[in-house]
Automatic annotation (TrEMBL):
Belongs to the ComF/GntX family. It comes from the Bacteria. Gene3D superfamilies: 3.40.50.2020. Residues 180-241 form the Phosphoribosyltransferase domain. This is ComF family protein. Pfam families: DZR_2, Pribosyltran. PANTHER family: DNA UTILIZATION PROTEIN YHGH. Residues 21-74 form the Double zinc ribbon domain. InterPro entries: ComF/GntX_DNA_util-trans, DZR_2, PRTase-like, PRTase_dom.
Length: 243
């Protein structure tokens, strides 16, 4: 009996230790330097490519002073009303995002969502509900989680806004947008989404959450489907922008 209890306590200690490592990774997410708390060492935090100063009114990319819209948005209309992004999607930052999206580093959702929440609060969007961009169920099973939902969950909790994770559905298993050109990206997601319960979002203002904005094709298709199903307006927020 004593041996069993000892084994049980050892297993419990193992579980607690590993749960703790998910919440507090004890190393910098960028350089791997040991940390007592937090997610980034001071040196790496100072290197994070925050978007500062003047930005495009539509897509949220960084612009020189005196401009209110980037060339891309001036040439291409969007279904979403306005987007905010926290970071520029630089090569160095993309490696952290890849850890978050593809390599099980779910703990990064918390610090990323904290920064997104700060910027969303500053913009003071009049939002009724938050909706994450969904993954196809097969892709979510392969990955083990939807990174956009993790961000949305923490943002919703921080801002006190309800998250609807079962309204916008991804019906089609599409190839990754990463290596596709602009026109191909639009084709790839066309018809990929549907709305399951249109009554709950009718005449509401939605904040759509995703990880990266590049051409905006995915966010546009999601926003179009939501608007077609009675949504009044769609704002979007992404962790980073590749523009």
């Amino acid at each position: 009996m004593e041996t069993q209890n000892t084994a049980g306590l050892s297993y419990l200690s193992y579980v607690v230790k590993n749960i703790g490592s998910l919440v507090f990774p004890h190393h910098c997410a960028m350089c791997g330097r040991p940390l007592e708390d937090g997610y980034f060492c001071e040196e790496c935090y100072d290197k994070l490519p925050f978007i500062n100063g003047n930005t495009c009114f539509i897509c949220g990319c960084e612009l020189p002073d005196g401009f209110d819209m980037c060339e891309e948005c001036a040439e291409t209309g969007h279904y979403f009303y306005r987007n905010i992004s926290v970071f520029k999607y630089t090569r160095e930052f993309s490696s952290i995002v890849h850890k978050f999206k593809y390599h099980g580093h779910r703990y990064l959702a918390r610090p990323f969502a904290e920064q997104m929440s700060i910027k969303i609060k500053e913009m003071d969007f009049p939002v009724d509900y938050i909706i994450p961009v969904p993954l196809h169920h097969e892709k979510e099973e392969e990955r083990g989680y939807n990174q956009s939902y993790l961000l949305a969950k923490y943002i919703g909790k921080t801002l006190g806004i309800k998250v609807l994770d079962d309204v916008l559905i991804r019906d089609m298993y599409t190839e990754s947008q990463t290596m596709l050109k602009k026109e191909r990206r639009k084709e790839n997601v066309c018809g990929a989404f549907s709305v399951k319960n249109r009554i709950i979002v009718h005449s509401k203002i939605i904040l759509l959450i995703d990880d990266i904005l590049t051409t905006g094709s995915t966010l546009d298709e999601c926003a179009r489907v939501l608007l077609d199903n009675g949504v009044k307006k769609v704002y979007t927020a992404t962790l980073a922008t590749g523009r």
